[in-house]
# Entry
Amino acid sequence: MRYYNFGDDQSISPDDFFMNEALREAKLALAEDEIPIGAVVVCNGQIIGRGHNLTERLNDVSAHAEMQALTAAANFIGGKYLKGCTLYVTLEPCVMCAGATYWFQLSKIVFGAYDTKLGFGRLNQKITHPKTIITGGIRENECAELVRSFFKSKR
# Structure
């Protein structure tokens, strides 16, 4: 794994940098004709888990990008809790994925595009861990356009 040190370089924020990594994962999903959503889990400036949607390939409705990245991160650290870690995902997590972040006890969730139809925020309930910090809208247009163009091509 690679460590990322931003030091005094203010040209790109860590949130932008790691969202770009999540976008790379989303583009891998797109190349596999999956819904283009990608995710990375970061701990102490290191990506410890990556994932993108695999629901079609695995024929598994739970194979969301977040679930792939969270499982990879837990395997990397050898434990089930991801305290001190941040999940970067290109689309607001669904209720299932947000619920999983509760059990993993993530410290922070950063997402790109809001999902007004299936995102957990539409419930107006706290389903993530009470200490989890949530930030949305990072590179929102780029993240949203990737999903929007995917579904447009399917019509």
Summary: Residues 14-31 form the longest helix (18 residues). Helices lie at 14-31, 55-58, 65-77, 95-104, 140-154.
